[in-house]
Amino acid sequence: MKLNRLRNFALFLMFVAFIIMYVSTLGKLSPATKFLIPIGLIIGILVALAAMFLYFRIGSISMRVPKVDCPHCGKTVKLLGESDNCPYCKKPLQMVKGENGKFVAKVVE
Ligand SMILES: [Zn+2]
After folding, report:
1. Residue 75 structural domain
2. Ligand 1 centre and the CA of 8: distance in Å?
3. How far is CA 104 from the centre of its chain?
4. Which of these, 57, 66, 59, 49, lies nearest to 14 by C-alpha position?
5. pLDDT of residue 35
6. How far apart are the C-alpha atoms of 67 and 55, rounded to whole Å?
7. Residue 11 contacts by C-beta under 8 Å, 6 or more apart in sequence?
8. Do both 76 and 43 map to the same domain?
9. What distance in angstroms lies between residue 106's CA and the mean position of ligand 1's atoms?
10. Average pLDDT of the segment spanning 23-50
11. Mean pLDDT across the stretch 6-18?
């Protein structure tokens, strides 16, 4: 479930980027704060790029997560970490390394 937390953080960063950009456009209300507009836009774009980079990282991590067959419902699932719940049947599963080095899932009783 670590990936979900990272995904939420990336989403949060995206919001922060938009807020920074929006606030910086308020700088046009007064000539004294006009210089804030380009600074705010640049910072906002940088934060948005950081959030996108994080999204790509999360994507590549979730690609590398081993796929296992749920022993309860038979569907192929991606488990994050050593124990996770099957997204289909909600059974608590545990990753066990079988012979030949492949991971298999076991239902936790
Ligand atoms: Zn299942």
Report:
1. 67-107
2. 25
3. 25
4. 49
5. 87
6. 20
7. 51
8. no
9. 10
10. 90
11. 91
> According to the model, what pLDDT value does residue 59 have?
85
**CA atoms within 13 A of residue 74's CA, in its CB half-sphere:** 0
Query: What is the 6 CA–ligand 1 centroid distance (Å)?
Result: 24
Q: How many CB atoms lie within 10 A of CB 19?
A: 13
Distance between Cα 98 and ligand 1 center (Å)? 19
The segment with the largest mean pLDDT, out of 27-31, 47-51, 58-62, is 47-51
- The count of domains in the chain is 2
**Cβ(89)–Cβ(74) below 8 Å:** no
Segment 2-31 shows an average pLDDT of: 88
Pair 39, 50 in one domain:
yes
